[in-house]
Amino acid sequence: MPRFMLFMLPGITPQEYAEGPTVEAVEAMSRFNQQLTDAGVLLALDGLHPPERGRRIRVDGGEKVVTDGPFAEAKEVVGGYWIIQARDLDEATEWAKRVPLGPGPQVEVREIWEMADMPEAVQDAGRLSKAPPAQTTTSE
Amino acid sequence: MSASDALWRIESPKLVAALTRMVGDVGLAEDLAQDALLAALETWPRTGVPDVPGAWLMTAAKRRAIDALRRRRVGEHAHATLVVEATRAAPEELPDPEDMGDDLLRLAFLTCHPILSTESRIALTLRLFGGLTTEEIARAFLVSVPTVAQRISRAKRTLTEARVPFEIPGPGAGRQERLASVLEVVYLIFNEGYAATAGRAWMRPALCEDALRLARILARLEPEEPEVHGLAALLELQASRTRARTGPDGQPVLLADQDRSRWDRLLIARGLEQLRHAAALGAGLGPYGIQAAIAACHAEAARAQDTDWVRIAALYDGLAQLAPSPVVELNRAVAVGRAHGAEHGLQVLDALHDDPRMTPSHLLPSVRADLLVKLGRTNEARTELERAAALSRNLPERRMLRERAAALQVDGRADPHARQATGISVVDLTPPEPPSDAAAQSAN
After folding, report:
1. Which CATH number fits domain A3-136: 3.40.720.10, 2.60.40.10, 3.40.50.150, 3.30.70.1060?
2. Whole-model pTM?
3. Residues of A with CB below 8 A from B220's CB?
4. Residue B65 in this model has a pLDDT that exceeds 60
5. Which residues in chain B have Cβ-Cβ distances shorter than 8 Å to A5?
6. Which domain holds residue B134?
7. Domain annotation covers residue B95
C-alpha cells in the first residue's frame, strides 16, 4: 500500500518559529487537514517543536557526542509532517499542492519505503524481530 | 496515474455529487464534471493553478450545468433556482462543507442502490464515489475496459429511468437496508482485493486501499452509525496485516505463521480507535463491529500463542446469533476448537455438514483437516486437504493446500513442520460474508 510522507519546510527564521504560527495560518492548515481526513487519505500528522529544542547524536572518536540545535539552514528545517495514503507519487503531489503555502515555505513529498521494496537479504534481516513493539499491543 | 487522474480522484466525487443534486441525473452530472476537468487542464497551464482547485472546478461545472439545462429547456422555475445556486458561490469559495458532505452521502446511497446488481453497484461506486477511472476498475477486477464502461453506463441509465431520488433515506425509506447496501459494497470491494476470488494474484492491494478510503469517508459522513465505524475498524485491522500475508513468492501466509512485526501498527491503532468509537455509541456492536472486535483480538496478541481464543469464540457466538451463515459457523468452529478443544470444534463443524446453504468450497474440508490433525486423525486430515485443494479456485491457495496435504506423513504422525501450519484461521483466509448476504441465504 503506497504511503507518502509530506514534509513541511516552513523556511522561517528561528524567531518566527519560536513565536509559533498565527491563528490564520492554523485555520488554513486545519482546513487542509480536514480535506485530507474527509477524503479518507490521512493516516497521521504532527507538528514539531523548533530545532532549538532538539538534539543530535553522532559518534566522534568512539564517543557519542550530543549537540543542541539548531543544526541546519532555516530553509531546510522540517516543521511537521503528514502521512497519507495515495496511489502513486502523482496523487501524493496533487495533495501536496493543496498545502496552504505563502512565498517561502516548501513541501517535500517522499514515498515511505516498504519492506517489500527491499532486496531479499534486507527483508530477511528485517524479519529478525518477530515481536511487535509492546506499547501498541496492550489490551485496554 | 497521471496528474489528471489524480485530480479526478480527488475532486470528482464532490463535483459529481453537487451536480447530481442540481441536474437530477447522475450520468449528465458525470459528463459535466468531466467537461469541467478538461477545461481546467486547458486553462490552468496558462493561468496557473487556482488556490482552491475544487472551487474553480465547482464553479466551472455549475456553469456547464446551467448551459446543459438551458439546452434541455427545463422549466423556468428550476432554471431560476439553478442560476441562483450557481452564482451564489463566489469563484474562489467552496460551498458549505456540510452541504457537500450530505451530497456525497446521497451519492453513496445512489451508487449503492439495491435496484442495481451487485457488480454494477461496485463499479459505479468506485467510479463516482471513489473517483477511479474506468481503466483502473477494469484492471482491478481483471475484466475489459468496455465491459466496465458498459456496466457503468447501464447502471446510470437504470437509475435515471427508475427516477431514483437523490436522497439520504430516512427511517421510513428503509434507511437501515439502504445503509447496509452501502456498507456491503465497500466490504465487497475490500474482500475482492484482500482474498482475490480467482486468478493468479492472492491479493490486489489497490482495491483494499480504495475500500479503506471509502469506509473512512463514510465514517465521517455517518458518525452516529455504529456499523459504519465497525466496518471502518474491520477494514483498518484487516489491512494492517497486508504486508505479512504473502511470502516472498506471493504465496499466502496463514495468520498463525505471520511475522507480526510486519503488521502495520498505524492501521492497527486506527482500527482500534474506530472500534472504540463504534462501541461508545452505546447501541451494541453489529456484525461488522463484532468482526472488528475479533480482528482486534488478533491484532492485540503479540504472538500467535497469546491469542485470546475464548474471547474470540464468544464473539463468534454473538455473530452467529446476529448474522447466522455457514461461513460464520466455520469460523466459530475454528475458534471453539482453539478455545475449548478440537473435538468441540469438530462438533460445530459436523452440524454444518448437511447444511444445504453450505456451497461447495475448500473451506469446510480445510478447517476439518486442521481439527482432525489436532486429534491425531492424520489420514482423514490428508483426505480433507486434498478435497480442499480440488475445490479451491485460487492458484496460490491451492498450492498451499497441496503442500500441507503432502506434509502430513502417511504413518499417521503429523510432520512437525506441518503442525506449525495447522494454526489455520479462516478468519484471515476469507472474512465472513456480509450480513445482508447472510440474511438472503437464510431466507432461501
Report:
1. 3.30.70.1060
2. 0.84
3. 37-38, 40
4. yes
5. none
6. 1-168
7. yes
